[in-house]
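Q: Focus on the shape:
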Amino acid sequence: MRLLAALFGAFLILVTPAPADAAPPAPRTIQLSRTVGVDITVPAAVSLGGGVTGGTLTRQLGPVEVRDSRGPVNPNVWVATVSATVFVTGAGGAQRTISNGRISYWSGPAVRSTGGGTLVPGQSTAAQAVTLGVPREAFRKTAGNGNNTVAWTPTVRIAIPTDVVAGSYRGTITHSVA
């Protein structure tokens, strides 16, 4: 049985030629279907702040949590994945797009867990960060029964190209569990 739950969060970064004082526009959230038994929750929306062209922006996204309430189903394992869209400003285009290959992610360790099981972070430290040009594993449960939770606070790092125009860039980072 394949269980899938996903939440999309709109993530906003401001890119300016110099640090900006402007407040970012309000991000949006879209929710997909949830399957009974395994759920994933993510922050509703996150503003990643401002950065400069040619610079790097690093921010934590807030807690991501998987709740497995399937009980003693065997095997009771799951894999949480993460992916990202490109970040764009305006109508997009070469100088208005930050590719998802320039977005790095690391899950970090579990910050909270209940109920046991073997829980394995996808990337424990910044040294293990992966780019989100393709979907990546964020966290995994490899053994144990249900009725447990795990939460982690992932970090993203965005390498802002030198040739992009200033603007408010929007993109989506998606976490799902199956």
